[in-house]
Design brief:
Shape: extended
Number of helices: 2
Distance between the termini: 42 Å
Radius of gyration: 23 Å
Structural class: alpha/beta
Number of strands: 9
Largest sheet: 5 strands, mixed
């Protein structure tokens, strides 16, 4: 299970994540100067940039309505009683018995560092199309999941 929290006394940073078609062995914020990263609108109205001498074309993809994009950072782990065991543990504590480790679950803590409304998906020499896994996830899979989880008619099997 995961637990989200916002850092105390700080404003959320608004950002735009860029998904590059390469592997960069760094995970975290970067102070990118315009010398190395300067996306511009090209002649065709699409985003263009050069990264290590290679031409990239970008496509902005908006986060679907009703969803929020967040940037999170691992903040460690927390142990808490399992929800279904809370009453039993309270009764045990009242009776003077000690808690058992198996009655606790571990929560992964994630601290919210920023938020975003869209992402830019970059491709080599061409704009990422609808078949790109990131674009497809934002456009197609989220709407598919919504339809799958909507309450609807119960489908009972007919008697044979």
């Amino acid at each position: 299970m995961l637990k989200f929290s916002s850092p105390p006394n700080s404003e959320k940073k608004q950002c735009t994540p860029n998904l590059l078609p390469c592997r960069v062995h760094h995970d975290g914020p970067v102070e990118a100067s315009t010398r190395y990263w300067a996306p511009e609108n090209g002649d065709d109205g699409k985003l263009e940039a050069y990264f290590r001498g290679r031409k990239l074309k970008g496509r902005e993809v908006k986060v679907p309505e009703g969803y929020q994009g967040v940037i999170v950072q691992d903040a460690g782990k927390e142990r808490k009683p399992k929800e279904d065991k809370v009453r039993a543990m309270m009764q045990e504590c009242e009776a003077g018995e000690e808690e058992q480790d198996e009655d606790q679950e571990e929560l992964g803590l994630l601290e919210e560092m920023g938020s975003f409304e869209n992402i830019v998906v970059w491709g080599h020499e061409s704009v990422a199309g609808n078949e790109d896994p990131f674009v497809r996830g934002m456009i197609e899979w989220i709407s598919f999941a919504e339809v799958m989880h909507q309450p609807g008619k119960s489908h009972e099997r007919p008697d044979k």
